[in-house]
Amino acid sequence: ETGVTQSPTHLIKTRGQQVTLRCSSQSGHNTVSWYQQALGQGPQFIFQYYREEENGRGNFPPRFSGLQFPNYSSELNVNALELDDSALYLCASSLAQGEVPLHFGNGTRLTVT
Amino acid sequence: ELKVEQNPLFLSMQEGKNYTIYCNYSTTSDRLYWYRQDPGKSLESLFVLLSNGAVKQEGRLMASLDTKARLSTLHITAAVHDLSATYFCAVNSNFGNEKLTFGTGTRLTIIP
Lengths: 113, 112
Fold this sequence. Notes:
Number of helices of chain B: 0
Radius of gyration of chain B: 13 Å
Shape of chain B: globular
Helix content of chain A: under 10%
Order of helices and strands of chain A: EEEEEEEEEEE
Shape of chain A: globular
Distance between the termini of chain A: 32 Å
Oligomer: heterodimer
Number of helices of chain A: 0
Strand content of chain A: over 45%
Number of strands of chain B: 11
Distance between the termini of chain B: 41 Å
Largest sheet of chain A: 7 strands, mixed
Strand content of chain B: over 45%
Helix content of chain B: under 10%
Largest interface: A-B, 28 and 22 residues
C-alpha cells in the first residue's frame, strides 16, 4: 500500500473525446508526477506539479494538461483523444520538490476506441 | 537525450538458477532505480542506488551501480516462481531534474 490512489481503474473513451484522471497523493506529499505506460513499454514522464504549478514536462503535446489542488490531489486531463493515448496512466507523489517519486499509484487503464 | 537500455528484454529461467539483468544509460547520472511490475499492476520500488559502487540486496535480488561504465545490474540468486515479473531500471539525471527515464523492461519468467 503506497498511499497513492487513482480513479477510475479502467476507462473506455472514443477518439476525439476528453478524459480526466484523478490521483490522491500520499498525505503531506506536495509534489505529484504523472507517467504514461503504453503496453509492453516502460513508463514515460508526462509532467510534474509542485504546489499547484507545473514543474517539469516531458515530450507530450499541450492537449495533456493537469491540475494540482491544495489538498494534494491532482488531475490529468487529455483533450482530443487519439488511439495512441491508450495506455496505463500512473501517478506518483513525492515529499518534496526535486525528490524522485518512489511510490506509484495502481494506475488508470485508458482505452481509446 | 538520456537513453536507458535493458537486456535481455525477455528472460525465461528455471527455478534455482542465477541470472543477471543489465541496464545501460547514455548520460551522466548518479542515481539509478529498480522497479518491479506484476501484470496489470503498478510499479513497486525495489532499490535506489545513489553512488558509484553502490550495492544493495534484498532477499534473492542484488543491485549494483557503476557510474563510470553507466551500468547497473540486477542479479537474481536461486530464482523462485514468485520473482516472475517485469523489472524496470530508471535513471534520474544529475541536473536536479525530477524526471525519471525508464528502460524498456525485462520480462522475467521463472519456470518450475
